[in-house]
Task: structure prediction
Amino acid sequence: MNRFEGKIAIVTGGAQGMGKAIAARLVQEGAEGVVIADIEEDTLKATCEEPGEKVTGIVCDARSKNSVDNMVRQTMQKYGRIDVLFSNAGVCNYNLFLDETEENWDSNFDTNIKGLFFVDQAVAREMVKLGIKGAIVNTASIACDLVSPTTAS
Ligand SMILES: NC(=O)c1ccc[n+]([C@@H]2O[C@H](COP(=O)([O-])OP(=O)(O)OC[C@H]3O[C@@H](n4cnc5c(N)ncnc54)[C@H](O)[C@@H]3O)[C@@H](O)[C@H]2O)c1
Result:
């Protein structure tokens, strides 16, 4: 089934794990171009070689709005549109409540909350500008519903 025929997609956090699998599936299902945006340059490079020319890797730190805006700008320059965003860059660095540090808290929230929000916003702006009825899918976590001793933050 070619559910993504002719579509341009961005997958953040796609250098490995679920994002990598989703990027490969988008190509399999007919996407014309898939941008994988990830902070890990070496892993990103290796990952983008596998599915071939339909995939473009862009180094991007989702915690930085400048870096996100730059990634979206590069995507628009290359493809001229964005139809699909899988907003998936995230970290699971959890500590026990009594051991949590300000540095780790900031890193988790800058990536998982702020990062996801501004990636979505930057891509949605381009979709609205072009009148594209696209799809934005955010990866969440069961930790939204369940509290455990190691997911204090
Ligand atoms: N695997 C699980 O059991 C699980 C459970 C709950 C939530 N999640 C969430 O699902 C998403 C993907 O999970 P996964 O298991 O594939 O994770 P993973 O660690 O294998 O992959 C996450 C990817 O995000 C990238 N990344 C991290 N910080 C980034 C940043 N600031 N900017 C850009 N890229 C960044 C990493 O380099 C990596 O390639 C994450 O958001 C994770 O928090 C996963």
Q: What stands out?
A: The chain is about 40% helix and 15% strand. Strands lie at 8-12, 33-38, 55-59, 84-87, 135-138.
